[in-house]
Amino acid sequence: MKDASPAKPYALHLGVIALLFALSFVLPDYHHGLLARIMVLAVFAMGYNMLFGYVGLLSLGHAMFFAAGLYGAGLAVIHLGWSVPAAFAVGILCGAVLSLVIGVLALRTSGVAFMIVTMMFAQVFYLVMLYLASWTGGDQGMVVPQPARVLSFGATSLELTNPTVRYMSALALFSIVLLVTLAIVRSRYGRVLVAIRENEERTKMLGYDTFSNKLAAVVVSGTICAASGAAYALLFGYVGSSFASVQYSILPLLWVLLGGAATTLGPLVGTLFMYYVVDITSGYTSAYLLIVGIALILLVLFFPKGILGTIRHRWLGWLP
Amino acid sequence: MHFGPHLLLAALEGLVTSAVLALTALGLSLVFGVMRVVNVAHGEFFMLGAVLAWAISTAISGHPALGFLAALVLAPLIVGAIALVAERLVLRRLNYNPEATIVATIGMLYIIQQLALTFYGPEARPVEPPFSYRILLPWFGYSGYKLSIIAASALLLVATWLVLTHTKIGLVMRATQYDSETAQAFGIPVDRVYAGVFALGAMLAAVAAVLIVPISQAHYLMGQDPLLLSFIVVIIGGLGSLRGTLVAAVLIGLSDGIISVFFSPTLAKIIATLLVAMVLVFRPQGLFGTASR
């Protein structure tokens, strides 16, 4: 099925990045801002896809990794007055450490128990953020002050509140994560992950240490999600406990299912599609959760492979 | 108030919580035990029960007991019918695949919650208790209605237990739980058993909600806490073990009541959730359950 030559997939991915770059100059203000947000959240979905799509582990608690990055970066700026790059690094580090700890514990279980355990750890994280309201702002959240959201290189400084800078930063993060995911998926390690998804016992019998491979996948996935959260805090200037709630664990699952699990571009397609569906329908009704619910049920019933998964199955077998 | 009476009050409150929790968790446990489906929408069936109880009791004029009794009968029936439709339309088509059904029940959760918000509104509304007799203890007066909740719940639990262990319906359900393929081979309509069990599970949650609504008000987000607590109870009691579910419900209800009287409720929830996650990680069969087959 898979084409051996790497040219086609890389050309496609670079093309998508170039298209997003070009769109920056064409889009009207509103859609420009929306797309920046979608790219950051698509990174969250890509992190989720790493674990759900390629290893087949369905987590219901990824909001905690996103929120770890969000709070790690946001609180470092708010309380410690750190610079943007340092805060971003702290956010990512928080996610990496948290995912390592959660991975070691949660990977002792599998299947339904894994889902419930991850959901419960995320709930604990959420409640802790509420409990520490004097630092985190509780459910009101906190605003990251505008003057602090500046990237400075020597004499030049870029304000992250500027729409173009914000869009380009989001695109940079998105492109890096997209290419890293593509490289991982096409590597030997990526194939071991898929082997674990398809038949863990057999992979173990072939001499692979499935536990440490899965643990590495949890850490990679959690770290990518934390990068998305950290970028969200710095680019959009708000940290709040709603991002740690169970709803934000469900959304990446929805985006990935919609776009196509185990496809590298699926998370972007799913996030983009869902955001615009909610955006368009919110003009008619405030009941956007209803749409999320119906979308979830229709997806598992009729399109378990998602948009890109179906396209790959029908027409483009080489799609990574 | 001194420490002793304070503790007694906390224990009574805890017992009321346990009574309602045991019913809700029993519904979740039955559905998981027989069908192997983790019903994330269980809390929403609970909420629907409470909301319907408000709708029915306000529609019926006259003595509050009349409206309450009507709600106690009608609300669970309506919720059971909704669950039955959901089971036929969605879960059966997914072949009860554990992971797909979780995603689908998450979808149901959002749909039911949003519909309740649209048609019922964001307000919390009270339901009048059927009677307001206060029992006077030497230290404080205690609501007679709360004590009757404990009694009603105990009655329902015993009835469910009798049905499960002493009737043909119970036998069929247990056979399906034990080995659905062999049950099918012996002519048990497994398909219909699943539908019935899913409806029964939802009805137990709805009954629990009707019982609690006179003391806690109906609200469209009220399903979240019972869902989490029921999960905790079912996990500690052992997935699919009914006796364990009961013991765990009393344990969790009492400790929840007592801890949240003396400490912050958020802290109590953090500790309880973390403990249960650890139980699931290190003792997946639960504290009282036997090792799974």
UniProtKB/TrEMBL annotation, chain A:
<keyword id="KW-0472">Membrane</keyword>
<keyword id="KW-0812">Transmembrane</keyword>
<keyword id="KW-1133">Transmembrane helix</keyword>
<feature type="transmembrane region" description="Helical">
    <location>
        <begin position="288"/>
        <end position="311"/>
    </location>
</feature>
<protein>
    <submittedName>
        <fullName>Branched-chain amino acid ABC transporter permease</fullName>
    </submittedName>
</protein>
<feature type="transmembrane region" description="Helical">
    <location>
        <begin position="250"/>
        <end position="276"/>
    </location>
</feature>
<feature type="transmembrane region" description="Helical">
    <location>
        <begin position="114"/>
        <end position="133"/>
    </location>
</feature>
<dbReference type="InterPro" id="IPR001851">
    <property type="entry name" value="ABC_transp_permease"/>
</dbReference>
<dbReference type="Pfam" id="PF02653">
    <property type="entry name" value="BPD_transp_2"/>
</dbReference>
<feature type="transmembrane region" description="Helical">
    <location>
        <begin position="167"/>
        <end position="185"/>
    </location>
</feature>
<keyword id="KW-1003">Cell membrane</keyword>
<dbReference type="GO" id="GO:0015658">
    <property type="term" value="F:branched-chain amino acid transmembrane transporter activity"/>
</dbReference>
<feature type="transmembrane region" description="Helical">
    <location>
        <begin position="12"/>
        <end position="28"/>
    </location>
</feature>
<dbReference type="GO" id="GO:0005886">
    <property type="term" value="C:plasma membrane"/>
</dbReference>
<feature type="transmembrane region" description="Helical">
    <location>
        <begin position="34"/>
        <end position="57"/>
    </location>
</feature>
<feature type="transmembrane region" description="Helical">
    <location>
        <begin position="88"/>
        <end position="107"/>
    </location>
</feature>
<feature type="transmembrane region" description="Helical">
    <location>
        <begin position="215"/>
        <end position="238"/>
    </location>
</feature>
<dbReference type="InterPro" id="IPR043428">
    <property type="entry name" value="LivM-like"/>
</dbReference>
Automatic annotation (TrEMBL), chain B:
<dbReference type="InterPro" id="IPR052157">
    <property type="entry name" value="BCAA_transport_permease"/>
</dbReference>
<protein>
    <submittedName>
        <fullName>Branched-chain amino acid ABC transporter permease</fullName>
    </submittedName>
</protein>
<feature type="transmembrane region" description="Helical">
    <location>
        <begin position="68"/>
        <end position="90"/>
    </location>
</feature>
<feature type="transmembrane region" description="Helical">
    <location>
        <begin position="102"/>
        <end position="122"/>
    </location>
</feature>
<feature type="transmembrane region" description="Helical">
    <location>
        <begin position="227"/>
        <end position="254"/>
    </location>
</feature>
<keyword id="KW-0472">Membrane</keyword>
<dbReference type="InterPro" id="IPR001851">
    <property type="entry name" value="ABC_transp_permease"/>
</dbReference>
<dbReference type="Pfam" id="PF02653">
    <property type="entry name" value="BPD_transp_2"/>
</dbReference>
<keyword id="KW-0029">Amino-acid transport</keyword>
<keyword id="KW-1133">Transmembrane helix</keyword>
<feature type="transmembrane region" description="Helical">
    <location>
        <begin position="193"/>
        <end position="215"/>
    </location>
</feature>
<keyword id="KW-0812">Transmembrane</keyword>
<feature type="transmembrane region" description="Helical">
    <location>
        <begin position="6"/>
        <end position="33"/>
    </location>
</feature>
<feature type="transmembrane region" description="Helical">
    <location>
        <begin position="45"/>
        <end position="62"/>
    </location>
</feature>
<keyword id="KW-0813">Transport</keyword>
<keyword id="KW-1003">Cell membrane</keyword>
<dbReference type="GO" id="GO:0022857">
    <property type="term" value="F:transmembrane transporter activity"/>
</dbReference>
<dbReference type="GO" id="GO:0006865">
    <property type="term" value="P:amino acid transport"/>
</dbReference>
<dbReference type="GO" id="GO:0005886">
    <property type="term" value="C:plasma membrane"/>
</dbReference>
<comment type="similarity">
    <text>Belongs to the binding-protein-dependent transport system permease family. LivHM subfamily.</text>
</comment>
<feature type="transmembrane region" description="Helical">
    <location>
        <begin position="142"/>
        <end position="164"/>
    </location>
</feature>
<feature type="transmembrane region" description="Helical">
    <location>
        <begin position="261"/>
        <end position="282"/>
    </location>
</feature>
